[in-house]
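quick one, two chains, predict together pls
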Amino acid sequence: MGFADADLAAIWLTLRLAGVTTALLLLTGTPIAWWLARTRSGWKGPVGAVVALPIVLPPTVIGFYLLLAMGPHGPVGQLTQSLGLGTLPFTFWGLVVASVFYSMPFVVQPIQNAIEALGERPLEVAATLRASPWDCFWSVVLPQARPGFLTAGILGFAHTVGEFGVVLMIGGNIPGVTRVVSVQIYDHVEALEYAEAHWLAAAMVIFSFLVLLALYTLNPTGRRK
Amino acid sequence: MQPTRLFVPLFALLCAFSVRAAEVSVAVAANFTAPMKAIAAEFAKDTGHQAKLAFGATGKFYAQIKNGAPFQMLLSADDETPAKLIQEGMAVADSRYTYAIGTLVLWSAQPGYVDAKGEVLKKGRFNKIALANSKLAPYGKAAVEVLSGMGLINAVAPKFVQGENISQTFQFASTGNAELGFVALSQVMKNGKIASGSAWIVPSKLHSPIRQDAVILAAGKGNAAAEALMKYLQGDKARAIVKSYGYDI
């Protein structure tokens, strides 16, 4: 018993998807979180609400709209086609785009909270010491808000690993390209291959437990501000 | 107020009503969604019984039924699943009936894209072709048989996108995300014609027949509505509806 080649391919694909997605999420989510934490603009509410939408929307809604939007007649699909990239559904990068959108709140919110918890004071002090905003971000915000970034990275990664509904709707179940672990488990269960399903499912339970354990040990609430 | 005065006739009425109109919960293969809705409406009109319908992949229904799902009847997308359920004592042995023989069609949402002989498959100028999961769904298996028979399976397999069931497969093709899709004729046929796009009705000799069997499940044994529906499916009215959606019977 153990993992078949198809299972290993699904595991590797899932880790790759989660890795790429987390990197992109930290890159795009940080400026958004920064803006949300510091702005006094009236747009703060609407932008925050849009970022949080994936938490409340069922994956079927997100998957359905992504399928239409990224399809050959949708706005995103027309854009990618005019850039010569083809369309995104059924591709690895299509899953990446969907995952970035889907996991965004899990990355933005911890970072936003951490930056808000810092307050104005450290940034004002840094400014009087003539630190540029860029310098200020790297030498004040990042070290001080480190737990927030750590939480964001871990949650973004774990949430992408745990994704199912959106992938099912725009993935097309292609081995090595879009057949991630959750879909592979679903297929095993459908085909009544319960032993194979157990191996992967148990691995997911252990993985998720370890991730959350890491999160709570590295980041105990007592040390948070 | 004398509540009992009111209660007694009301209770009698309720009892009478529930005897007359029984209810049957039916698991229906996704490809049979449209015709079954039409049949259930007629069935309710003609018999007073209600059929509560759930649509999905046959493989999933099988797993759910084995694990205690409260369905009383299964309209399967194949003939193997009902046979297996009977063998395992989960279905009533002599209730099995072939309610439809499915027709596979190669379909595109774009008019003029698919020619009348399926040559479009040989030219290979498409990026993606949708089919139902070939491991689980009868229409997916049939599609793979067709491609193997044409000697195209190796060339076309890298372009496969697989739907979880035939409905999702149709969704991939109808949104244009896959240029081509192997779907059920019933999904693209309306009033005896291909409703939109272009299609090649795959000759039935290119794949083993998609016999779709219905069976009364153990939970539906003795249920008046289940027995009535099984009989209704064999009647002329239901068969005419089935045929109008492009099935053989």
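The mean pLDDT of chain A is 91.
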